[in-house]
Amino acid sequence: MTKEGKSQEAGLEGEVGPGQASAENDLPSGGGVINLRINPMIELDFKSKKEIYEIRKSYVLQYPQLLNKLIEGEYSPSEAIFGAIEDNKAWYGIIGQSYYGPGDRLMDGPSEETRFIANPFLLVGLDSGVMLVVDGYDPHLPPIMIYPEPLSLVWSTDCSSATVKYNLNSFWQKHHRYHDPDIEERGLDLVGFNARDFGFNYLYVDPQKSQNAFSMQAGYQPAMIRLYIHCGGNCGYAGCCNNMSPEQPELRVKINSLPAVLYLKLWRNAPTSIEQSPDMVFIIKMV
């Protein structure tokens, strides 16, 4: 999950009427649903912290009908999550992270954290959790971006639930070819700093409602989301790089086979038990 722990505009895609759901996402809801666009990654290298805050705000404000139900007052990026970003630093690039590895080329490609920064309503996403290096790559060929790719995102209009769908099969196929033939055994990390930014601080993978997927955390207890972004030196680039930290093994999940579903309960405050009704449900479907 954390790189430190291990060496344009988008608009409303459309609303669906009450009692219906997107055919792709099949989100259960008593009301309507909103299909959100998955925004592409963007470049953050050497931008100021102020610029990054404004970029974050611009993406959050694209869906005021959701934002107004999630927070009170005006949105401002959480200092607990974004406050340690440093001005004018490099960021891990998606190509650098998944192809070249640590060093001068780690910043190649759009900034990989913008998978989440540019998609704030993707409350919990998937990540491989490690930097990768493709051995023997041909410098004359375009590099490959290897990461779990979200296909669609839909929210209920009452903000009680949301569903994201991932193309995990494509990620596994690329991994088998360029990296690790046993990638399925290593599992994936849940990236939840967007949930934390909106005040959902605790996460639980419900084993009864998940399918072909489960938490690798012993005891199946709710996990406190502690993820934030700071500047560190494991990128191997002079001057350090902004990236996500810390490593949270309690947010690691295992996918047994596809299709699969992770059913996540989110709470703002620590629940008294896993049976306590969540403040929101977030569903990750994988095909």
Average of pLDDT: 88
Strands of the widest sheet, in order across it, are 1-2-5-6-15-14-8-10
Shape: globular
Gyration radius, in Å = 18 Å
Number of helices: 8
Q: Estimate what percentage of residues fall within beta strands.
A: 15-25%
Helix content: 10-25%
Helix- and strand-based class? alpha+beta
H/E element order? EEHHHEHHEEEHHEHEEEEEEEE
The biggest beta sheet reads: 8 strands, mixed
Distance between the termini: 21 Å
State the domain count: 1
Please mark out the parts with pLDDT under 50 across 5 or more consecutive residues, or reply none: 5-14, 16-25
Count of extended strands? 15
Question: What do you see in this structure?
Answer:
This protein has 287 residues and is of the alpha+beta class. It has one domain. It is 19% helix and 25% strand. The protein has eight helices and 15 strands. The strands form three sheets. It has an eight-stranded mixed sheet with strand order 1-2-5-6-15-14-8-10. Strands 4-7-13-9 form a four-stranded antiparallel sheet. The chain has a three-stranded mixed sheet with strand order 3-12-11. It starts with 11 loop residues before the first strand and ends with a strand.
